[in-house]
Amino acid sequence: MTLENPSTYYTMTRKYDLHYPDLEGDIEADVVIIGGGFTGINTALELAERGIKDVVVLENNYLGFGGSGRNGGHVMAGIGHDLDKIARDVGPDGLEAILKISDIGASIIKRRIEKYNIDADFQHGYGYMGWNKRQAKTLQSWQRIFSQLNPDQEITYLEGREVHEIVGSDKYTCGLKHMGNGHVHVLNLLLGAAKAFTEVHGGRIYENTPALEVRYGKQITVRTAKGSVKANKMLWACGAFLDKLEPELHKTTINVYAFNSVTEPLPEELINQISAIRGAFSDISPIIDYYRVTNENRLLYGTCGLLLEYVPNDLKAFLHTKLIGVFPYLKNVKLDLAWGGPMECTLNFFPQIGTLTEHGNVFFVQGYSGFGVTPSHVIAQVIADGMDKGSKAWDAMSSVPRKTVYGKDNFRSIICTLGKITQQLDAYRIGRR
Fold it and tell me: Which domains are seen in the chain, by residue range?
């Protein structure tokens, strides 16, 4: 297992044999996007659907190399962690604008799958899980909020033995079943969107094409190893793999490592015991267990270090121990694969979007803080709004101030460990622990 170039469940089960060339020569475009993950590809497709078709995407490695191809595949409600942390920054009107888009991600994903016939194994059914009275009150409040946003969906609070209707674990005493949410094969979803962008809308993607230098101005120039792109606007969409390319963006996030695994194929009876709805699940504590049933009857399980920030020497053993803490009866089940990688976090755990301080034609998205599959589809629309005529959501989200993470280059593990401890303590106050 290597964190630098991992084999994952997604790379082993991809259904699209897509490969794009590296860039050779000098080209021009309306918009250049650096980063071939969900943010980059979704924004490119969103722009193309709005008639801005001369868009170029540059990917340093291959599409989905970063977090978009390594995550748990959960399609969840929300657009960022704990909106109360940004309430003062955006004001009542801004908060209302964000709330209006906070639970539309799943519908965007489903519409896109249907529109372009993307084979991505979408499955309805999600459970937000808790194990004490504080978490029960939080889940009950979420049930009211989610039901107001989506009155036509089945969103039910469960308690006691009812919890076993959705997940076969004695760890939990309460849960929120959200049948509008679910899970998806993220790499196939990404590649299906890329195929639509290039084959339906004529967009251009270049893989294995690192951006070596960016020169800003009325026209932006991105220099690569064997060519360049000149464009009127650009988008930084590198996630945890920015690698100091843009200093203004580098200083306001910090990378934390998360890990995933997938079991061997399991018998149908055991899958039904794990989840009768074949759903995806996560608890609501700051450092979550998250897992889901795959299309091939495997269990895909993920987490990260509870308090200490480190990469385990034996990742399979680490994840197996965590897994049987949720499902003790899976003690003898083998893990076929384990992988991991960095995810970029912000100090308020809310995604950062906007334009660079002195360059209004240079846009950015970063800092999903481990919660990016669904929000990235929503934020792609918000970024497209920002590149066009703007919107209330763009105004609100781009107004959230970004705070510098001091000492991150030398003391990353210490800062992340202290952050985890602080989050765990704060979780008692807000009913998440």
Answer: 1-122+184-252+347-402 (3.50.50.60), 133-183+254-345+413-433 (3.30.9.10)
pTM of the predicted protein model: 0.96
* Among candidate residues 125, 261, 297, 116, the one with its CA nearest the CA of residue 190: 116
pLDDT tens, residue order, the chain (433 aa):
456 667 899 999 999 999 999 999 999 999 999 999 999 999 999 999 999 999 999 999 999 999 999 999 999 988 888 788 898 899 999 999 998 998 899 999 999 999 999 999 999 999 999 999 999 999 999 999 999 988 999 999 999 999 999 999 999 999 999 999 999 999 999 999 999 999 999 999 999 999 999 999 999 999 999 999 999 999 999 999 999 999 999 999 999 999 999 999 999 999 999 999 999 999 999 888 999 999 999 999 999 887 889 899 999 999 999 999 999 999 999 999 999 999 999 999 999 999 999 999 999 999 999 999 999 999 999 999 999 999 999 999 999 999 999 999 999 999 999 999 888 888 878 888 7
Angle (CA) 150-151-157 rounded to 5° is 90
SS3 235: strand
Rg (CA), the chain: 21
Given a contact cutoff of 8 angstroms between Cβ atoms, the answer to whether 65 and 243 are in contact is: no
Residue pair 44/15 in contact by the 8 Å Cβ criterion: no
Helix (H) or strand (E) holding 178: strand 174-183
The answer to whether the Cα torsion of 275, 259, 73, 289 is positive or negative is positive
Residues 6+ apart with CB under 8 A from 141: none
β-sheet bridge partners, residue 74: 183
The C-alpha angle 181, 320, 340, rounded to 5 degrees, equals 65
CA distances from 381 to 29, 58, 59, 130, 411 (A): 20, 20, 20, 32, 35
- DSSP annotation of 407 reads T
Beta bridge partners of 228: 26, 223
Decide the pairing of beta strands 227-236 and 359-366: parallel
Residue type, 108: I
> Which residues, in sequence order, are CB contacts of 273 under 8 Å at separation 6+?
168, 329
